[in-house]
Amino acid sequence: MDVRGPTILDVSKLKRGASILPDRRPDVSVLFVDISRFSSNVQFIICCVAVFVLYVLYGYLQELIFTQEGFKPYGWYLTLVQFALYSIFGTCETLALSLSKRRIPLKIYALLALLTLGTMGFSNSSLSHLNYPTQVIFKCCKLIPVMIGSILIQRKRYKTIDFLAALFMCVGLSYFTLADSQISPNFSLVGVAMISCALLCDAAIGNVQEKSMKTHGATNTEVVLYSYSIGFLYLFVVMMFTGDIWHGFVFCADKPHIYGYALLFSLSGYLGVNVVLTLVRTCGALAAVTVTTCRKAISIVISFIFFSKPFTIQYLWAGSLVVLGIYLNLASKNPSLSKKLGDLLDKFRRPFGYKRIRTIETTV
């Protein structure tokens, strides 16, 4: 017979604001596999591996589609097919997981859909005017508009090393674009304008998604489904008025294998989007962009190996500057390394009479 009596918890010994219940970690899944039981570092590594595999395949298939004879004018039609498939995938996943309640307001999804359409549409169409490596180099510099978007939308503050990283990226990007304009037969300022618009939309997407998902607790599936289905409606209406939907359908009807490529292209992209959204929700927009930026280096190497195109040593130097900018941005996330680099920058500034001015923000 148990005579110990009930267990008494001395709540006076609990710290202020502490909970009696054990902490419950949020559910995290990658490719429909629950990884919540792993540490945050292991979760990050799993997400990184998934992003690299899926988006390297995505990039290969994207360039493969645009190398099909005569396909270059139909970038927006590919975007329409891609959005339709994303909507189907999202609907199937929603039904499988029994997710019915929408958490984020429709007005936010209307904005997200427009930004997503701008990102995907301009990115696909830019390949009609640019080499794939040049497009990828532009995407590598997505950190710049993301920083600007974070400052304007979320009022984030960045260190000097982050702005130095942005400077290296700008110089490397300019150098790479100049080299491409001199040797590439497939270069146009229209392509530069398109990929620049895609980057601006993408920068806004990451920050709006991060803020909305954290505020409303929405799932990846919900965000993907509503963003792409509403975006599909936008593009479908526009292409019906312009007649481009019929031209694209007739062209692809003569080459049905393009739909097979588009299916694999969309499937890898859809799964990749889900993994990136998991990164956004768990690590933030900047960390997600940093990971997707690093995988683009592999995509560039694969592009030169599998698809013939002119090459110049200037590509290497320009790419190195961009990689240096990415490294500095990653280093700024490491406290000890960031401090060492900050001290090094101070040594360079001292001969020029630089003195830090303490403002209200730095003293409060």
From TrEMBL:
Molecular functions (GO terms): 3'-phosphoadenosine 5'-phosphosulfate transmembrane transporter activity
Signal peptide range: none
Subcellular location: Golgi apparatus membrane
Keywords, in A-Z order: Membrane, Transmembrane, Transmembrane helix, Transport
Source species, domain of life: Eukaryota
Database matches in Pfam families: UAA (PF08449)
Flavoprotein as UniProt keyword: no
Topology of this chain in the membrane: Multi-pass membrane protein
Any one Gene Ontology cellular component term annotated for this protein: endoplasmic reticulum membrane
TM regions (residue ranges): 42-62, 74-96, 108-130, 136-153, 160-179, 185-205, 225-246, 258-279, 286-307, 313-330
PANTHER family documented for this protein: ADENOSINE 3'-PHOSPHO 5'-PHOSPHOSULFATE TRANSPORTER 2, SOLUTE CARRIER FAMILY 35 MEMBER B
Family from the record: Belongs to the nucleotide-sugar transporter family. SLC35B subfamily.
Protein name as catalogued: Adenosine 3'-phospho 5'-phosphosulfate transporter 2
